[in-house]
SEC7 domain-containing protein (Polarella glacialis), 474 residues
Amino acid sequence: ARSECVFEETNAQTDEATAAQMIALLGLCGSFPGEAEASLEASAAAAFPAEVRLHAFIKVLAVWGYYRQSHTLRACAQVALNQILDYCLVDLGSPARAELLRLILGHVSSELGPALLVERAMLYLRCLQRVALHPAARRWASAEHPQVSFFRSEIPLLLLSFSKHFSTRLPVLALLLPVVNRICWLCVDHWSTAEAGGQRPSPTSVFGALQVEALFGGVYLRSLGLAVPPLLAAPDAPSEASELLELLLESLCDLLQPELVRALWLSFDGDWRRPPLVEQVVARVVELLGAASGTERPLPPHLAQLSSAVLARVVAAFVGTDSVVQQGRSRQTEANGCDLDSVRLQWRQREAVCDLMAKIEENPKKARAAFDKSGLSDITPLPSLGGLAEGEDGSEEWARKLIWMLRCQNHVIPYAAVGEFFGQPKDDSEKAIAAFVDTFDWGAADIEQALRGFLEVFLLPKEAQQIDRVLKTF
């Protein structure tokens, strides 16, 4: 692995014992030194930098792909991959080990796509499972260090990509969903613990909440939407749809532990700025039960039982006779400053946001007038202008508040309608776009390319000249 010539080629005649030794040596190259040789860390980092260890990791992947018929060698390759991953996770505080894990995840991301073989996708998911279930994962996922980004950025984004490309492949989902559950538990555990202690949410804990929102919406809600219609559409629904729904419901039952349900309800359903995740899950399950009961082909008994179990999990999180549980729940509610009256107020505010977005979708040209009449301006925070130099004039207050709404309420935004509002040749539209741009921290980005990307998100350039006209303004 070091010289890029050792074991460069393999062939079918290679003895299994020799190939197993080759895999073991590659695993050693990627994971040396172990805990017993901690004193050699500095010299090993110089002799085996992250790029060389990544090369060993890729070599093991190549051997795994070559020996398709040998379960023994594939098992040896999986052990070697786990060995390299364990080397990273034992001490993610080490820059060299963190860099190696970042390179490995980057390599997985570069191969992930529609053309990726299912067996290769399952191998990568086993690697992600190793990372997520490692004993040290909880410590690194709750640390206020850059390493936390692995569990709240890189890994969740990979999981979303797997769900996008393999959303109906049962073997892949069977490995994907437990990893999704683990990442959700790690994120919720961190931010709910911090809030229960009376601490203000940190940027990383809020980022973790965003990842939970993305995983729920991009994996569970999306997959449920794909599994339910085929099951109800035809009398002879394919067995794959039934098996997929069974897998999703079983995984939801595993995910919805009482503490997690309460944390989700307080952090999402009880906050008008976020989507009501628990409500959406319950609505999907109730819709499934209701739609099936009105058809000639009722839901299979085991699916009806699993659906009821999901609903029971949610209800049981809020119904308990144990006084200790009740006291703990009261302390958590007090720490979050949340009671039923304030939650009802949050719900009314969320309804006002949904009404506003519906009016914008109905008449995009009058987005500002709809915002002024909604009454949301009084409760919308005034965001800072991260992209402006000191002393530079900012945008008008209404525009900044409307843009905050469009940046944070992404779960209800009618993007095409907002794009039509941005594309109007009117002062209000120009001020709104300017306020949006003021919030950007450009860093070293290509401003024109970034602005084009921003406009394309809102489907603005239905006519090519619109985007060029907007760019001329800046």
Observations:
- The longest helix spans residues 203-233.
